[in-house]
Amino acid sequence: MKNTTTRRGFIKQVAATGVGLTIGGMSFKATSAKSYANIMGSNERVNMAVMGTNGRGAGMARNFQSRKDVEMRYVCDVEEKALAKGVAAVKKVGGNPKIEKDLRKILEDKNIDAILVTAPDHWHAPATIMACQAGKHVYCEKPCSHNPHEGELSLAAARKYNRVVQVGAQRRSWPGLTEGIEALHNGVIGKVHFAKAWYTNNRKSIGFGKEIPAPSTIDFDLWQGPAPRRSYRDNLIHYNWHWFWHWGTGEALNNGTHEIDVVRWGLGLDFPTAVSSEGGRFRYKDDWETPDTQTIDIRFGDDCLVTWEGRSCNSRDTEGGDRGVIFYGEGGALETGHNGYRIFDMKNKLVKELASKDVIDGRDPNSPSANLDMGHIADFIDAIKSNRRPNGDIEELHKSTLLVQLGNIAWRTGHRLMIDPANGHIVNDPEAQRLWSRTYEPGWEPIV
């Protein structure tokens, strides 16, 4: 396969060998060397299942089902209300899905071609790996992993089992933004030495939770899945898990992944040489563990710096936007963050603008509009049928996700990290290297 971001065509990938994998107490057998993608016709229906439908997952399942060549056959969630939301969303556009709370049972269905993973972050990589091994293609919402090691495993699984793995970095499929990135690549503002990205919100306190029995409407053991078991608490589900390191990844990966990916895409960067981070949980004193205010500085060699600013609890716009990216070049600046861009010369004069009518609200978890999601969905389905790598391929998004993961590791250790630019690994820092991976509930360890 070859990545299509530069629009240079496709190269067919060598088929994978059949190898078994055991995860979560169940075994899966890899598909044969003859890839499903190689035999699927352009008009064939792609049969899918969605995992996680309390929030964005329900909307994404609806978007997939709205295509004539997709059938969302299963809705998978561990909570009754979320299951109902997912079923209602799919039925609204003509689907009639089965319900199942355990993804592993769905993966045994040989009629399922692809899995949409929209569960909490600690499930993203394990579900992706399990699905690839079972012969399914994967559309996984960001972040693609809970920690750097999982990102490497997801990439290895995609390549080993010859699966298309698209990460929900939908900006990679926005035509207006793509035009701006191509202009950057063509030198419209000259060499770029600095890029700034940001995200803002006005999140409220999550208070101090109490350990109580999990409601009868949720299978909390299955919700935790790969994560070592912790007691249920009344301020965790459905959204606040984002702010606990055990299950979530903080604002940096919850939202910063999008902008940092645009930066890395625009500058053609791979791995950094150094990463540092400052911030803290400043606004409220509660159970929230990750920073609500954070800056991450990412150094690439001797001539490029990238910075991300996250403000979870102060929604004042930066440069007129609740989120965005600015590239500062030797001949001007390019500003984006939406399906368009603006170019300024060195005298701060606007010299070109591609405006977008698409509404993007960085504070709405269901944003952007379906119109902007559909392009990325179309790219995923076409990648399956054409046996090529998608715009948001796991290799590219692992690299982007790693940058903000390194920022979180730097913040958690309290010191600057030195990085090997050949592979992104932390150098000579045992304390930081311990956060490269995590422990798993026995029997759930992901192995490729």
TrEMBL record:
PROSITE patterns the record matches: TAT
Organism domain of life: Bacteria
Membrane-traversing stretches: none
Record-annotated Gfo/Idh/MocA-like oxidoreductase N-terminal domain positions: 47-168
UniProt-listed Gene3D superfamilies: Dihydrodipicolinate Reductase, domain 2 (3.30.360.10), NAD(P)-binding Rossmann-like Domain (3.40.50.720)
Entry-linked Pfam families: GFO_IDH_MocA (PF01408), GFO_IDH_MocA_C2 (PF19051)
Gfo/Idh/MocA-like oxidoreductase bacterial type C-terminal domain sequence ranges: 212-444
SUPFAM superfamilies listed in its UniProt record: Glyceraldehyde-3-phosphate dehydrogenase-like, C-terminal domain, NAD(P)-binding Rossmann-fold domains
Protein name listed in UniProt: Gfo/Idh/MocA family oxidoreductase
Organism: Parabacteroides hominis
